[in-house]
Amino acid sequence: MADKDPVSPSGDSRLSSSNMSNTSDDPKPSSDDKLSGFSNPESARSSPQSPDMEFDDRCHKVQEPKFDCLLFDLDDTLYPLSSGIAGHVKKNIEDYMVEKLGIDESKIENLGNLLYKNYGTTMAGLRAIGYSFDYDEYHAFVHGRLPYDNIKPDPVLKHILKNLRIRKLIFTNGDMVHAVRALKRLGLEDCFEGIICFETLNPPCPPQGDQEPEIFDIAGHFARSGTADGLPKTPVLCKPNVDAMEEALRIANVNPHKAIFFDDSVRNIQAGKQIGLHTVLVGKSQRVKGADHALESIHNIREALPELWEEAEKAKEDVLYAERVAMETSVTA
């Protein structure tokens, strides 16, 4: 996957895409629209139809699958936690906090845990409590030193994805450079229509002035109050923030009620459920609140969601039927 031209189906330039031309700005009809124009659905099913009406009805059904988009998290979802990448990311973030932001090493572990727990990502938390830094520099430091060789090509997953004839997008909190490198290592760079990433949702960080930033003491806050009430807000948009997730879907022109969201994070899954997504927790064998399904491995998609393949087969049959009806209609006309 080479660097992508920034294009999106809704005209928003923030979604990086390899092929966005097959979507439109027009909202897709809901499943309730299939019988529109009939005052009584039962009579519609029982009434005889002309070949033209039958052809139109069959074609309309082809356009009405239950799901029309799959959203995949990247890290620890498309490749396993056992790759060790997550551990290296954590270590690099801690090194950045010490080396670039001058935070006392003895405070790093507790501070990092508080930021991650309350803001979704350490970066979002650092910005919330007052630190200012260049986002590209941060990502280059955190991801640039990762052992990408630990991510192995996955031809099995590629075969699965290629056989799913449905729109597929990456939705990651990571930056574009990291997402592209990881997908290339997996051999999946041509399996997705686009990538929703950090740059999709966040403008560049404004330059820091000469004045020393005032840093909010989040550890002291919790020591005093024990609650998250009164915490400063972050300017960074990322999962599991509901506003961030809704904005991502808007940019990518995704209807949450017709999309399936795969992620390894319980918090992200629960936020996805909150905005109407059908949710799949990856890397766990037990479902949790907010997860419609749980997969030990992303390779288990077919076992957990056989309807995706059933819909694909049904769509093929409907197309063949519609073509046959069209030919018969043209002959008898």
Automatic annotation (TrEMBL):
Residues 25-35 have a biased composition (Basic and acidic residues). Residues 1-56 are annotated as: Disordered. InterPro entries: HAD-like_sf, HAD-SF_hydro_IA, HAD_2, HAD_sf, Pyr-5-nucltdase. It holds the Pfam family Hydrolase. The lineage of its organism: Eukaryota, Viridiplantae, Streptophyta, Embryophyta, Tracheophyta. This is Uncharacterized protein. Residues 37-50 have a biased composition (Polar residues). Residues 10-24 have a biased composition (Low complexity). Signal peptide: none annotated.
